[in-house]
């Protein structure tokens, strides 16, 4: 039910964006804003494809539920690309990316995650750190309100996903150390409560939790 409600809310958000920006064109955006949208489209695809691949390897609910949220994240960025008349860089084939850096990141994280369940969960936490780092930077750089709304929504979801991955790791006896975020910022996020409205995770209580909300 939570997934359905979130999908409805996302659809409303996207319809507002589309109606407000139909026909605006990419000339209204800076080159940096365009590059940010293209990057986040593939970055969200990386998360979706990676977690889906791990779901095929490990019978853990977090790898079943979080990919659904990532699909919503991808759809949100795709709607912005369409609204601003930008070509979609996302390849329909799983695990294939135009961005060479993201391709290398995906390949490495997939290889790491195949070693063990813990390694897969750590790869997931790393991806969410990457998303948070990039979304926070892009939010500081962009002045377009429609993009800010979507990025803010995705950022809430990524914080929730990071909380979910670190809590599942803790439930499995592992303490995740941040790789990208400053320790104090990381601690502030993972020690915080789950947030609503980010297409992220619900309360994480079981060993394999990660229910989409």
TrEMBL record:
Keywords attached to this entry:
Signal
Query: Signal sequence span per UniProt?
Result: 1-22
Coiled-coil regions in this chain? none
Region of interest (Disordered), ranges: 194-213
Q: Which ranges are annotated Gly residues under compositional bias? A: 197-213
Q: Where is the DUF2202 domain?
A: 35-191
Protein's UniProt name: DUF2202 domain-containing protein
């Amino acid at each position: 039910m939570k997934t359905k409600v979130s999908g409805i809310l996302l659809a409303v958000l996207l319809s507002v964006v589309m109606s407000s920006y139909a026909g605006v064109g990419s000339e209204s955006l800076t080159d940096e804003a365009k590059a940010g949208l293209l990057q986040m489209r593939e970055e969200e695809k990386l998360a979706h494809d990676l977690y889906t691949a791990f779901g095929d390897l490990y019978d853990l609910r977090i790898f079943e539920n979080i990919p659904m949220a990532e699909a919503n994240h991808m759809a949100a960025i795709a709607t912005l690309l369409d609204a601003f008349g930008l070509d979609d860089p996302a390849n329909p084939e799983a695990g294939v990316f135009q961005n060479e850096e993201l391709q290398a990141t995906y390949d490495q994280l997939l290889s790491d995650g195949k070693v063990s369940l813990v390694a897969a969960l750590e790869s997931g936490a790393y991806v969410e750190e990457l998303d948070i780092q990039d979304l926070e930077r892009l939010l500081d750089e962009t002045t377009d309100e429609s993009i800010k709304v979507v990025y803010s929504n995705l950022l809430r979801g990524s914080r929730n996903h990071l909380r979910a991955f670190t809590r599942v790791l803790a439930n499995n006896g592992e303490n995740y150390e941040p790789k990208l975020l400053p320790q104090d910022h990381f601690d502030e996020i993972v020690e915080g409560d789950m947030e609503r409205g980010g297409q992220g995770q619900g309360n994480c209580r079981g060993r394999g939790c990660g229910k989409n909300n």
